[in-house]
Amino acid sequence: MIVGLNIKDDIRAYPLQILVWHEIVNDVVGGKPVAVTYCPLCFTNQVFDRTLSVENAVEFGTSGKLYNSNLVMYDRTSNSLWSQALGEGIVGEYAGVKLERLPFDLAYWKEWKKLYPESKVLSRDTGSIRPYGADPYEDYYSNDLILFPIANDDKRLGLKEIVIGLEHQNQYKAYKLQDIETKKIINDVIGDDNKIALVSLQPFMVRVFDRVIDNENKDDKIVVDLLYNETTNILIDQVTNSEVNFDGTFISGPLENKQLKRLPMDQGFWFEWVAFHPETEVFYIK
Question: How large is the average pLDDT for residues 106-128?
Answer without folding.
Answer: 94
